[in-house]
Amino acid sequence: MKTQRIHGLDTLRALAIMLVFTNHYMGFVSNRPTFGVVSELGWMGVDLFFALSGYLIGNQIFAGLRQDSFSLKNFYARRLLRTLPNYYVVLALYAFWPLWAGGTQHAPWWQYWTFTLNLELIPGTRFSHAWSLCVEEQFYMLLPAAVLLIAACRGSLALGWCAIAASVAAGMAFRALAWQDVQPPAGGNARAYTEIYYATWCRFDELLAGVALAMVKNYHAALWARLTSAGNWMLAGGLLLFSACAWFFLDAHFGYAISVVGYPLLGVAFGMLLLAALSPGSLLSRMRVPGAASIAIWSYAIYLTHKQLCIILAKELQERYRLGAEHPLTIAILIAASLLAGFLLYLLVETPFMKLRERFVPASRADNSASTSREQSTSPSPHPAAQ
To answer: How many CB atoms lie within 10 A of CB 227?
Structure first.
């Protein structure tokens, strides 16, 4: 299936995986903010992925319902064929290749297989950055069923908006209660990650921001037209709000107030950036970043492989050639290796399964009209101890 790419979404998706890379590099390779403040804020890349997924998946569902062509069975089949093959190949590396596993402690294997690793996850667990894949997979499974249930009710549109508002409020309440229980110190602790950062019920704010955008697009055409006609204002406002969120998180990442309200504010910021990317006349939409489209396509595969690959290669470069983690050549090699590994996984595993999917579970008319090229709707990850 060949569809027109939306370059603004490519740019955001490439930015998200780059942010994740810089954060993982700091947390697992150099143990220093090698890329400066970008390393410290790189965990926000996962929240940007969440916003992208919320919009793209929500748009497919709502467009399908509007055209009366949505199939729950086909939706689940297409999602699983999109996400499972790459994931299980990399999971096999962790299970059967000791060098790749790196001697880390694994969680019960059923949690990896069922995408429930993020529940009660302890930082430092094997393949721990899969926590965000778990959040997204759970989201993929629950959202369409919830939408269909709401759609069967009277006043479904108003009820849908109420459900989104109630869910945001619930997320804030869950984080407030968890924070009171954990009382994390200024620098954070393992329990803060386990109870707040990894927990599904505390991490759906940006996903909901994306779903809200999809609802506006499909059910409020006049409002959508006004918003997308102001794409550059959305870009400016999104960057301003993102900068404010970044400052607050840098200042007190584990503080009570930012833990409760910081994530929904970040969701609004990324929602505004998504609007800018989807606005034909905006700078973000018209900008063509060399290589962004390829990185966007490979980003799921890059996400799965880059962290452990960089850990292994950095150790080899240090021991064999005395090249430290912050040496420019080391950085260049690890970036190139991450891109190459992502490309190979995409080419050898993801692409064949995508072809099988198009053959046996073809997209509906709504999916074709709602998607961007290659359905940019999988996942990724964040923070040092958050892996």
So the answer is: 21
Q: Which residue is associated with the tokens 């709602």? A: 370
Q: Domain residues for 164?
A: 7-370
Total residue count of the chain as it appears in this document: 387
C-alpha to C-alpha distance for 50 and 60, rounded to whole angstroms: 15
Largest CA distance in the chain: 68
Average model confidence (pLDDT) across the chain: 93
In a domain, 279, yes or no: yes
Query: What was the pLDDT predicted at 125?
Result: 96
What residues contact 281, with CB distance under 8 A and at least 6 apart?
A: 229, 231, 232
- 122, two tokens: 């302890």
Rounded CA separation 265/210 (Å): 13
Distance CA 249, CA 186 (A): 11
- SS3 letters across 7-56: HHHHHHHHHHHHHHHHHHHHHHHHCCCCCCHHHHHCCHHHHHHHHHHHHH
- Give 105's DSSP letter: P
**What's the number of domains the chain is made of?**
1
26-40, 124-138, 298-312, 365-379: range with lowest mean pLDDT: 365-379
- Within-domain flag for 386: no
Coil, strand or helix at 78: helix
Confidence (pTM): 0.93
Give the phi and the psi of residue 364 in degrees, each rounded to 5. -75, 170
379 located within any domain: no
Whether residue 382 lies inside any domain: the answer is no
Question: If you count DSSP H runs as helices and E runs as strands, how many of each does the chain have, helices first?
Answer: 18, 0
**Contact in structure between 285 and 276 (CB atoms under 8 Å):** yes
Question: Dihedral angle at the C-alpha atoms of 48, 59, 201, 188, nearest 10 degrees?
Answer: 0
